[in-house]
Amino acid sequence: MNASSLDSIPHRQGLGDTGSPAASGRHADAVRPPAGYWRLALPMAGKDGAILIDRRALVANLGLIVALLILGGLSLCLGSVTLAPLETTRALLGQGDAMNAFLVQELRLPRLAAGIATGAAFALSGCLMQTLARNRLATPGIIGIDNGATAFAVASVVGLGMSLAPPPLALAGAATATALTFGLAGGVGTRGYRFIVAGIGVGAVFGAVTQLMLARVDIDTANAAYPWTVGSLNARDPASLWALGAALVIGLAISRCIAQALNVLRFSDSVAAGLGIRVRHCRRGALMLSVGLTALAVAVAGPVGMVALIGPELARHVSSPRGVPLMGSALAGALVMVSADLAGRLMLAPLEIPVGIVTAVIGGPLLLWILLRPSRRIC
Amino acid sequence: MATTSEDDAPCDERRRPLVVPGLWLLGALCLLCLASLVIGAGEVGPLASLATLAGHPLGAAAASDEARFVILELRGPRTLIGLAVGAALGVAGALLQTVARNPLAEPGLLGVSAGSAFAIALALVLGASAATLRVSVAQLGALAGCAGVLAAGRLSALGQDPVRLVLTGAVLSGLLGALTSLLLMMDQRAADEIRFWLVGSLAGRRLSDLQAILPSLSLAAVITLSIARPLSALALGERVAVGLGHHPSRVRLLAIAVVALLVGAATAVAGPIAFVGLVVPFAARALAGPDIRRTLWLALLLGPIVVIAADIVARLAVRPSELSLGVITALIGAPVLVAVVRSRRLPSL
């Protein structure tokens, strides 16, 4: 994960520099970057090729990665059987006690991977959706996309007898819910709160449909599906996890490409169009990416929608205010998911609290705070 | 059915007598009650039930013991409780919408029901038993939920934006719901006691449950009758109400107390049921116009109609098992929510 090139603004000298007097010198060393940036010359991009690195974003992302590593290590060590760090490392390498190796490699490691992947996917898609709707509350979980994906995925359990949560159905459900929400709110735009409440209505319908279908199956199937309908990393399915991992890699790459356009998209459409952004194009791409990531993450972990709100919020706080913190959101989301899962496993030790409940308890007050504090900018 | 013919009503709509729609609704309600008695998920079919109903008072031997038991001990109480719960939720919705001046204010959406569910879960975890205390605890929780969301609204002047208040309420009720499930995970005994109550359903309730809430329902009815006129004055604006000799803040407090009484009682019996308080006043206003006094009378009839109809569907949809009532009301209510939100100019109350 090369963080240095991720939240930076690609910047080619000569396309419009910051007006530094040395720019006429045509020599890379003579160019002073704007305050708060580092300038990194790229030899392969020609003499004048360089990128600007946002110093604060870089530091924040590195910090998030360190925190994620620490928490990931903790989550491998702690649990019903507590392992010392050394033992865990040996178990990871396949040495030492066979029981420990099984515990770490078969149980905790996939769980950690699922936590990181789903957290990153939820938070990245939340950040994309917030940016394109220009509304901090417009995360996929709140506007009903999570519930749509859940309903369709549960339909596969009920109707087709397939294994839990096949990704294609979750994708179809998420797309349906998105189309409904955007279609129903079409007249009023995405900016206001009406859009959100229309989404809440759509989400309520899909939630009821999920319950309806769960009531129709026999009790064992319903029980198997239950933790997943509140959001849990317990019932993950390897195929879905691989699909999510692949989508996450692609999604991060695409979001890297449209980061600059998204930075501009925060302003009004006319400003963005004036700066040469193909607004519709960019918005459609971001929307599809966001919906796809949400759906695949739901297919793995169920609707843990609050991460999509907490992750970007955390990223905005630690990261630079200049750009849309896409990479930071993904990292923060993974961090939130892993720590919520760890807390849920440890709090009532023999019992396990589904991660969806933990994030709802954390995310609720945060949402209230966003809503109730004296209104500043929403985006 | 009080028509307001002696009032100086400015528009024609207010003069339109309520008797005709009222009678229609009453007829529909009676039919639904009958349907609720004769239709069920079990073995006793409609024809046998009708025969039992017709034969029983005359002492005919045709009625089997089983049919009699099903109708008198299971479906009868269920129908009566549906009447009470529906009336309570419908009237509470109409009152809350008037007080909040917001056509989207609904006890379930604003977190009032979630508040009382949380209070009951908390009381159970702290050691109370399910049989005692339930109604008053639920009402206290409802009051807290009501006060919480309305105070939040006042705090940041959310009152001007109806949709934002609903969003706050949705967040509040989501949070309370998560806390409730957390509490229940910590205490298995409490979870076992209220798991079936928490999903919102009329199944398996007894007549004694109804008796427990009757005092609060009648108290609420008395208070509602006394504040109906000040409330309709308040709908014209604070100054008009003061000029007519009412005390707006006192009236509002009383109305909120009534909402808490009603929602707490309904939740204590049937569990949290959302969207009834949204659909019923919506339909009542469509039939009767904006005057709160007329709306309340119609809500009193429409509430039971919605709840009993939803209950019948809940019994039939997934035979032989039963569905929770909240699912059906959400399926009816969410489209109404979207429709209200979509209407470009929200009718402010």
TrEMBL record, chain A:
GO terms assigned for molecular function: transmembrane transporter activity
Gene Ontology CC: plasma membrane
Membrane topology classification: Multi-pass membrane protein
Gene3D superfamilies documented for this protein: ABC transporter involved in vitamin B12 uptake, BtuC
Domain of life: Bacteria
Keywords: Cell membrane, Membrane, Transmembrane, Transmembrane helix, Transport
Chain ranges passing through the membrane: 62-84, 112-133, 145-164, 170-188, 195-219, 239-265, 286-311, 355-372
Compartment list: Cell membrane
Region of interest called Disordered, as start-end residue ranges on this chain: 1-28
SUPFAM superfamilies in UniProt: ABC transporter involved in vitamin B12 uptake, BtuC (SSF81345)
Protein's GO biological process: siderophore-iron import into cell
Family: Belongs to the binding-protein-dependent transport system permease family. FecCD subfamily.
Protein name as annotated: Iron complex transport system permease protein
Organism ancestry: Bacteria, Pseudomonadati, Pseudomonadota, Gammaproteobacteria, Oceanospirillales
TrEMBL record, chain B:
Region forming the signal peptide: none
Domain of life: Bacteria
Xref: Pfam families: FecCD (PF01032)
UniProt KW Transport keyword: yes
Primary residence: membrane
Gene Ontology CC entries for this record: plasma membrane
InterPro entries in UniProt: ABC_BtuC-like, ABC_transptr_permease_BtuC
Keywords: Cell membrane, Membrane, Transmembrane, Transmembrane helix, Transport
SUPFAM superfamilies referenced in this protein's UniProt entry, alphabetically: ABC transporter involved in vitamin B12 uptake, BtuC
UniProt topology in membrane: Multi-pass membrane protein
Localization: Cell membrane
Swiss-Prot/TrEMBL GO biological process terms: siderophore-iron import into cell
Keyword Transport: yes
Transmembrane domains' residue ranges: 23-41, 79-100, 112-133, 140-159, 165-185, 251-284, 296-317, 323-341
GO molecular function: transmembrane transporter activity
Family in the record: Belongs to the binding-protein-dependent transport system permease family. FecCD subfamily.
PANTHER family in UniProt: FE(3+) DICITRATE TRANSPORT SYSTEM PERMEASE PROTEIN FECC-RELATED, FERRIC ENTEROBACTIN TRANSPORT SYSTEM PERMEASE PROTEIN
Protein name: Iron complex transport system permease protein
Source organism of the structure: Onishia taeanensis
